[in-house]
Specification:
Elements lengths: L32 E3 L1 H9 L8 H10 L5 E2 L5 H14 L4 E6 L7 H15 L6 E6 L12 H20 L3 E4 L7 H12 L6 E6 H7 L4 H11 L3 E6 L2 E2 L2 E2 L10 H10 L5 E4 L13 H15 L4
Parallel strand pairs: 1-2, 1-10, 3-4, 4-5, 5-6, 6-7, 7-10
Antiparallel strand pairs: 8-9
Length: 303
Amino acid sequence: MRRRAFVRNSALLGSALASPYVWASPIDQQFIACQQYPWHTFMEREGRKWHDNLDRSMQQVSDAGFTAFEPLVESKPYLQELLPLIKDKFTCHSIYVNSVLHDRTQVNQSIAEVVEICELAAEIGVKIVVTNPSPVKWGGPEDKNDDQLRVQALSLNLLGSKLKSMGMTLAYHNHDPEMRKSAREFHHMMRATDSENVKLCLDAHWIYRGAGNSRVALEDIVGMYMDRIVELHLRQSERYIWSEIFTEGDVDYASLAKTLKDNSIQPHLVLEQAVEEGSPKTMSAVEAHRQGLENAKSVFKLG
């Protein structure tokens, strides 16, 4: 089940503010944040839902050893409900929001909603805003046409300039549909936007899977867009199925970590080890995340 299924479409168009943008020093890499989405997948297989008891859900993230959290912000009211729980236990340098940027009739509203969410998120120190522009149809096979891709790139760039004026960084994120047809959607979002306005949240496993389970494709994309990577989502699979914990597997994270370090790239690290049909079921969500966190620290040589 895709993360998009859990998030309401947000988002859009207005004139960019004129205040200068200054990117702060890289976020302290001595911790690894936890993404909200994996907890949905673990709870789903246990017959529970994240939203049924937010206090309990957030406590589980803390019990797994995390002190940093990346929420999936469905709406401003949801973030308002979550803020006290975040402030009590976590730092929050990034949020994930959806947006509708390819449809001319929705883009202005979508951007406006994202900006409204980010104004509130600034209160807890959020610096990176991750967005994965919505597809033509959720779960459908239809790809965006050239006009939709051009509209989306212009809209993504506009959203990035707005957030930049607020002291935030927009990071583009993809799943596997953006990798179809020679990865035309993914590459156009990178090539047709200003690198000062739109950075990259590298979701290594979605790149790998979307390219037909190819380490070579992942390595090439890292090489092409390395200087735009500000966040890295960490998920692993074994024999192409998401593993229960983050460990060695199909994606060579040790090599990726070395490449980034050798090039002085310090992305915000966010563990997003979800489960899917066929994933092992041998431990609780808390234990799986606790072990995954320790393994990720080892790979990226954190204390």
